[in-house]
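MODEL INPUT / OUTPUT PAIR
PAIR INDEX: 1
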Amino acid sequence: MAITISTYTQQLTPIYDEAEANAIILQLLQHITQWSKAKVLAEKELVLSKSQLDDMEKGLKRLLNHEPIQYIIGDVDFYGVSLKVDPRVLIPRPETEELVEWVLQDDLCKQCIILDCCTGSGCIAVALAKQLPDSTLFACDISLDALSLAKENARRNGVRVHFFEADVLSPSFTEKVKPADIIVSNPPYVLRQESTTMHGNVLKHEPHQALFVPNNDPLVFYRSITQTALYRLSPRGKLFFEINADFGQEVVRILKLAGFSHIQLKKDLSGNVRMVSAQR
């Protein structure tokens, strides 16, 4: 049967704007047909088999239930690695790729020990391990489900990461951490009150434990990881955070009060203050 992309795009426009809906349908078509993007776009009408049409209808039903396209497809590309994703973990964002790029630009990281706190899918640790074969990567998370998926992602990409379970807010967290040259983290930083403005595909399907922080204590993860970094970073070691754009100066204040130096705020490609680094 012949169909057009617009046939499906129009059904998604109550949820997404037309450009985003079109991009999502294109991804779904590529996944189901295994055709290149160029081939899908080149055809005015797409001739699909019955099984492919059935899969499109199933996919569309999931999309209309606000399920993210990444969970439907089952994987994402992230800084040169292919990652499996499902509702156990957050979907890696492009700004986190920028954080990885910033870490890689640091002279310390050529052959060093790196710890990724709140690893989730393992995206940061796996990407860094792929780029830095002579470095040693550790990564932790409170969620055993997330760690299981992160380990699978490390195996999928042929890299070695030492994963371990840990609650970064626990008083015993520092005892679990080995000395490191770089600590990097993309911890939860979305305020609960922000949930009212979030898209349904995030709110209904991505794990809230990895997203939200209390409205009255939004920087709790940054304080805890910073304190651990004081004891576990090597002399002149570096700390890298992804941050909530509304709290850049507050994170800087935490780092200054802890005695860190060479503190830098960095904007992402969208112009939002999204990262901070500091030296012990």
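PAIR INDEX: 2
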Amino acid sequence: MPFDLEKTVHVFEKLDDGGLQKVVVKDPSNKEQISLIQAHLKEESERFRRGDFSDPAKIHGQDMPGLAELKSGAGNIEVLYTPLPDGAQIRYSTKDPALLMAIHHWFDAQLSDHGRHASGPDHQH
């Protein structure tokens, strides 16, 4: 990842129709990290729309929970990138129950792997 894990927080929030992934800076005046987060998440969202999940697979492993389903079902997942004042977010939504489960399993794996650099939706920074 191009941004500094020590200066950022990952938030993975499971939603009824998908999930919300946010990466935000701990210090809102750190413009360099904000711009790195935005560039990275924008690029990732474009890859995910095409079913290219190679980047998370490199970090977390090819057998990451939910990954195979997300790759094969990418055409049925809406992926929406949004820049935020302190970082960026990617919103995933689907009407397919199997893909919804895959998104939730994928989020659980990322929360587990990112450890102290990640949190669920109740995080306050």
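PAIR 2 NOTE: Residues 31-49 form the longest helix (19 residues).
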